[in-house]
Amino acid sequence: MSGSRLNPMEQLIKTLDLEQLEHNLYRGTSPDIGWQRVFGGQVIAQALVAAQRTVDADRFVHSLHAYFVRPGDPSVPIVYQVERLRDGGSFATRQVQAIQHGRAIFTLSSSFQRDEEGYEHQIALPDVPSPEELMDEAEFKRIFLPKAPEAIRRYWERPRPIELRPTSLKHYLTTEKLEPLQDVWVRTVGDVPEDRGVQAAILAYLSDMTLLDASLYPHGTSVFDPRLQAASLDHAMWFHRPIRFDDWLLYSQDSPSASGGRGMTRGGLYTRSGMLVASVAQEGLIRKKAND
After folding, report:
1. Which residues, other chains included, contact 236 with Cβ-Cβ below 8 Å and sequence gap of 6+?
2. 279 in active site
3. Which residue did the predictor score with more confidence, 32 or 183?
4. Per-residue model confidence (pLDDT) at position 23
5. Which of 35, 221, 244, 278 has the fewest CB atoms within 10 Å of its CB?
6. Choice among 111, 222, 232, 252 that is catalytic
7. What is the pLDDT at residue 10?
8. 232 catalytic, yes or no?
9. CA 33 to CA 38: how far, in whole Å?
């Protein structure tokens, strides 16, 4: 298939299929999605794929910890250099550095484990409206995009591999200071391969979406505010259980703290049936732009 015929999910899967340059060295490219910098979720996912390429097939990611060092340039490839820190009996550890223009833009540490039995528990799925009860994305775009900053409007207007349905739209309609809580239904648009490595990478990709929002609610603003400077600073993720993308997932988030121009948010990703498949934590830059 030519690039022009790929649907958004096919394009994402192609973006995650890194080119191997040398032993432990990979290269990825970025699709044009209207941003001046590379989407953070893409870099997380590509770095995870690079790490996965260096571990045994029976070991699966259970955690990752990452830092965004510099904004990524979408016009040039990203080189991913993997360091094989450890291969033990059950676990393997990898360090990945993403490089552009001769400088690191991102670092990721990840740990992989063979499947095994053990104790199990989880916190319950929050009680929220089902995705079918909520405004779909087409209606959301019609109502809210005319008021959004140009960069955000361009991004939302393009077909995307992930659909979002927030359970509340109040923060888009008011400057009222709200509780730092958010629940968003998410689903993939298009088929996802039956491959646990690809599935984990796509879950990592979407885990960077909407997270900073909850940290802005108590301050009466949102990422749609053109006066706001917002960017991910770090990202951590724990993969509790294998995931299938055959239905909606609930991304339940809360922001326990904001200070020093930074907001911290936690999230849990649940299947509709209530299984917690992953947990996420992120700190991001949230501050007014200079001269505002």
Report:
1. 63, 64, 65, 66, 280, 281, 282
2. no
3. 183
4. 97
5. 244
6. 232
7. 95
8. yes
9. 9
